[in-house]
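Methods — Computational structure assignment.
A single polypeptide chain was analysed. Its primary sequence is given first, followed by the predicted tertiary structure written as structure tokens.
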Amino acid sequence: MVFEPPQRLVRALGELPESAQDAEWLEQLPGLTEAALSRREVQAQRVQAPGGRSSLVVLVQYADGTPAALKLAPPRARPDRELAALAHWGGFGAVRVLDSRYHEEDGALLLERLHPEVSLRSLPDAKALLEAGGTLRRLWVAPPAGHVWETVAERTRRQSAALRAAPAEARALADTALAMRDELVAAPPEELLLHGNFRQGKVLAGERAPWLTVGPEPVVGERAYDLARLARDRLEDQVATSAGAAGARRRVNRLADALEVDRERLRGWTVFRAVESGHRALAAGRRREAELLLEFAAWL
């Protein structure tokens, strides 16, 4: 089998500032995949396609036919930290790790097989949000002492540096988002392990549980930060409705109340994360996506 990276992955990595580093990883990917399969004594069945925007997933099986999934991501994505988070959750609300050892030589993760073609996005939005909330509650646990993950303050400090260079068309919103971020990190109410990039598409159907999350970008901080990404899910549908700004605010408030999160802190993190994502989309040339994100942030 030839382990060529899907074009969706190639395009996505090419948009990032670390594209040169990722290009080198992409060239090595076929060899890394072969080595990872051999090291874990599993056999490849097929590459998951179209796949994600940040990793290669190969559907594999053990010698006895037990299915599994092998995930390979660039080193800058810190797969070791993803492995540590998944191991800490122990399969409770998240995909289960089948090999807890981290092999720096290939950086691959061997995980239980889920159903990648069935995510929460296959459900009506109201039902999907209800299931998403239940999954998030399982993930929000205290991190272990001496944990390896960065904090929300650290992650958003890095993002703020880029946001300060936002173009004129996004300058006012960027300044508002930066001010909100500074106020939020000044007095964080809690320090929990968070998914970091939680949305409906990151929750897949499983065998041992109806829904399990995948693809964390783990970070330690408050629940409102994690919930902020979910608040803008199915953004095109939200923008297309006649509810507009009022509908966006109601959605944020409903999510906050359902998961017992402070409304204003959720609104603040939702604005910051939408503006930061919009700025990155502009920089990558994805203007339509950027316009949607910035319009949504302005509504809040």
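Note: The domain at 119-299 is CATH 3.90.1200.10 (Aminoglycoside 3'-phosphotransferase; Chain: A, domain 2).
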